[in-house]
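User: My collaborator sent over this chain with a note saying "see what the structure looks like." That's all I know about it. Can you take a look?
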Amino acid sequence: MFVLFAIIPMAAVLSAFLIYRKTGRRDFLRFDLVQFIYAFIIAPLMFVWLKTFLYYLLRKEVQISLSMDELFVIDTLFSVIALFVYAFVVIHSLTKSFELKRYVDPLYDVFSHSEVLHLWIGHTGMYVGVMTLFALVSMVNVFVPAQLETVKSVFYGSLVLGYLTGIFGFAGIWLSNFTDNPIFLKIMKFFIALYFACHVAVYFLFDPHFNSSAMAYWVIFMAFFAMTSASYLFERSERASGWFERFHHKVGWKKGNFLTSKSKFKL
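Assistant: Without extra context I'll predict from the sequence alone. Here is the result:
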């Protein structure tokens, strides 16, 4: 086991050195390919390896017996610190990609580059990733019912909360679209409909109990139902569209050269 733990970081570090000479030659998702590999392949691999190695040490090597609660606290603390480090790794990879572009072309439009990352990659990855995580929690709850008992009022209140969360979630997606290009919203609506359809299919195939044991499933089901309904209504309701446009305009910056609701700049 220890040999395997030693090989993985050595292989990661060696591969990082070997691919460094390819820096600046090719892009992927508007990142320099080498920087993308560093940030999204090698760094997550090392994060998982470090968590596994820490768990191995605490369970097998440390002479003190630790409870599951103590292990959870240690793992959580380690994960939070590691995630902060990972955030700076991603920042470095992004800014390094900008630097490489500016080195080749001093007049390169870094702002345009960052806007592509901001909307198409940043927002898409963030929203799809969050929906995927919630969908996974929901599916796990179907096959592993929670040992939870609540009164009906709490259960039904949770369903209402899930529905409202879906409405506000779609509102956030709607307001995140800073361009007139409809592709971003179409991508979001596709994934919303996909996950809602998956929840409907799970309902007919596995018939989860309509009680607190499957609360996570039903709350997330209601959230996706609300998002699907909102994506249909907001598209066709001029009143709803107008309300969101006015809200978007009010929360947008209106002074100086800051962004407005139509993603234009005052010069």
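A starting point for your reply to your collaborator: Strands lie at 27-28, 31-32.
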